[in-house]
């Protein structure tokens, strides 16, 4: 990952565009379909839609996913690939997520935006 191209937003989300997509950005209320790999900061994988061979779909802007995904995916275009580095405040915070994501974990997601509906 080329850290020189890392963008940090005012919320603390960091991202690097691996591949820029084309077309329009998703709007609030639209469904997006993504493939992703989620890892902890130490590189340990905790989830992957590729492993299930099933893209994940969610509606933008209504709180179905963590804040880091909302912000990071909303500025992607179809075909885009992005690495999101999500601070705990935009992820699962001090509660973590079950036994998979510890409290206050920084999350790293490699996301590909497949479709906007």
UniProtKB/TrEMBL annotation:
It is an enzyme of class 5 (isomerase). Gene3D superfamilies: 3.10.50.40. GO terms for molecular function: peptidyl-prolyl cis-trans isomerase activity. Its EC number is 5.2.1.8. Residues 29-117 form the PPIase FKBP-type domain. Signal peptide: none annotated. Keywords: Isomerase, Rotamase. It comes from the Bacteria. It catalyses: [protein]-peptidylproline (omega=180) = [protein]-peptidylproline (omega=0). This is Peptidyl-prolyl cis-trans isomerase. It comes from Candidatus Atelocyanobacterium thalassa isolate SIO64986.
